[in-house]
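Running co-folding for calcium ion.
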Amino acid sequence: MKQLKHAMKPITGLVVVVSLLTLAACGEKPQQQQAAAPAESKVEKEVIVWKLAQTWGTGFPIFGDAVIKMADLVKEMSGGELEIRIDSANKHKAALGILDMVNAGQYEMGHSASYYWKGKDPNTMFFSTMPLGMIAPEQYAWFYYGGGMELMKKVYDKHGVYSFPGGNTGNQMGGWFRKEINTLDDLDGLKMRIPGFAGEILSKLGVVVTNIAPGELYTALERGTIDALEWVGPSLDLNMGFQKIAPYYYTGWHEPATELQFMVNKAAFDGLPGHLQAILVTAMQFAAYDMYARSYHDSAVNWASIEEDYPDVKIRTFSPVIIAEMKRINQELLAESAAADPMFKEILESQTNYMKMARKWTEISDYAYLKDNLE
Ligand code: CA
């Protein structure tokens, strides 16, 4: 069957039935096709238009680009049958309310980070990254082949959405500080924006922890609402200008493999025909892994020239004493939460056992290679 014309005019929020002018020449032998003039017939075709709410502002690089890439792929691969329109935080005004909006069906899809929902459900935070946990290749292996996807489905079931990996930042930097952090006392009373389980750990060390939407980070730091913050790494931080206020830039411990998140309203996903479900899942997985490569690239490029471009940035690493204390509190808090919640325990054990197994390979492959070949 050969299509002559497309006349699809989608309308937002609706399933639109349109007509495609087609040739009804299927199944005919070549000589018959030559002899008979092709008959025209109308074939009904649905165009489904979805809305996606993202935590990021309009034009936000890397994270927002991953969403655009996913939506473009879906449209292209589905021949225009499924169109996803993106609303940024400037429009919906609920940067940290994406899960609720997708659950309610206000949006069919969302793009955010799973650990932003830890106040609602602590078990969601395992699907972003865990302090002192797996690095990105280990964590991707866990998601797709080590039981991670199944556990994520179990956790998000009660929240009315399907959750999918939505792009990895790679290892993140430990954050921007106005003053050098030399001792544990320097952390006491410090006001810091840091999400996820790392925030729980720092709270125990006296840090006043908060989470703030990305669009408000610079202002919060500038006005002194916070003394320190962590965001991502050189791929995104330098453009935000944090170094102008807080020049001490610490290496990471808290987010070794931050995975963003696509969410799809369950009823909306279940209502899609199978081929569109497959296209959507494929596009999300591609966009997620593509963002990992993009993040690595942008971090590498920006890091290569950081000394020249930003001579005032002071690179630091937390002292062994501070790191040891973070590790101790991490273990203590994880054990407490696991004792109180069987689901927390199940996910923690899955991640811990997987990391223990996979780390041996990481050690003898990447780590051994780097250790022996770094100049
Ligand atoms: Ca971060």
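Result summary
Confidence is low (pLDDT under 50) at residues 1-14, 16-37.
The pocket of calcium ion is lined by residues 172, 230-232, 255, 258 (CB under 6 Å).
Job closed.
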